[in-house]
Specification:
By secondary structure, the chain is an alpha+beta fold. Helix content is 16%, strand content 29%.
Length: 320
């Protein structure tokens, strides 16, 4: 063989080796490895059945909203972007009562997410004082919301609310000592008050501020007290649907800190005490009353916190 022929043979051998190596690499790459015998599974092996190109991809079934969530009439108590106190529950009300058999389906379309981890919570159906059974379902965490939490609520596919837990304010009224202790972000102060007189006792238990007004007209005939009063009261913080307020009351100038003389509301003096509390309080702040008699019902405003946690959870239709 001539030198030229030997060189050409060498080049052909190298090219053949490179091609063989590339082929082996391609086989390994496509096969994804080999079995114990060193043979990679083929495209027709039992592990990889051929795909029928004519079979359409299954489509997800459209979500059907429960009737209670369609056609409007659903109300959520928190506004988008609102800043609330640590006690504010999420309350959803419906235009018509939701039958018991449909409540689980409704709950599955209600979601609450919070930026703060480890915040267990639950929905519970609440008998609202002014609505029929099945027209209201509330969500609250096991304990008060953590300040700074960002909460997102989805009600069906069409309603979203995002709110922020601004800070913590819990005011505890002891009707026996005629004193309100306000704890705001760890700072404490005590305020003299006058509460409901005997026979017109202030509700006992935990209430949540629903709203507040600079001035409110209060008529005793609307709460069954005849013509006892019909006047405007300033710096009114709304606590219950039955008409309990924490507000400025001229009688507190004399009796705050010493005697309970109101028709069930909590009275603060006109010397700036009532105004100060009014200006710092926001919806969702907590007012607890101790030493009184009957406990406020869950559906009388936001009395949700008066229900023990395990009992609260049993009010969910998903636990039936």
């Amino acid at each position: 063989m001539t030198r030229k022929t030997r060189r050409a043979g060498t080049r052909h051998a190298v090219r053949g080796a490179v091609a063989a190596a590339l082929c082996a690499a391609v086989l390994v790459g496509c096969g994804g490895g080999s079995d114990e015998g060193g043979r990679g599974p083929s495209a027709e092996s039992e592990d990889r059945k051929p795909v029928d190109a004519g079979t359409p991809t299954p489509r997800a079934k459209p979500v059907v909203e429960p009737a209670a969530l369609r056609g409007g009439g659903v109300r959520v108590n928190v506004h988008d972007g609102q800043r609330v106190g640590v006690g504010m529950p999420v309350s959803v009300t419906f235009a018509r009562p939701v039958p018991a058999a449909q409540r689980a389906a409704v709950e599955r379309r209600l979601t609450v997410r919070t930026s703060t981890p480890n915040t267990p919570g639950s929905w519970s159906w609440v008998k609202d004082r002014n609505l029929h059974d099945g027209q209201r379902v509330d969500y609250r965490p096991k304990t008060y919301w953590k300040p700074g939490s960002e909460v997102t609520v989805h009600v069906g596919s069409g309603t979203v609310r995002r709110f922020t837990v601004a800070r913590s304010l819990v005011a505890t009224v002891d009707v026996r000592t005629h004193t309100m202790t306000v704890v705001k972000d760890g700072a404490t102060r005590r305020v003299p008050v006058t509460a409901g007189a005997p026979g017109m006792d202030t509700w006992n238990g935990t209430m949540v501020v629903s709203d507040k007004q600079r001035r409110v007209r209060m008529d005793s005939r609307t709460v069954g007290y005849g013509d006892a009063y019909n006047d405007d009261y300033n710096y009114a913080v709304h606590l219950t649907a039955s008409g309990t307020y924490l507000h400025e009351n001229p009688k507190a100038n004399t009796y705050a800190g010493t005697q309970n003389v109101t028709h069930g509301c909590i009275g603060l003096a006109t010397d700036g005490t009532a105004r100060r509390f009014f200006e710092e309080v926001i919806p969702g702040d907590v007012v607890r009353v101790t030493g009184s008699k009957e406990t406020v019902a869950p559906g009388n405003g936001y009395g949700d916190w008066n229900v023990p946690w395990e009992e609260w959870r049993t009010g969910s239709a998903l636990r039936k």
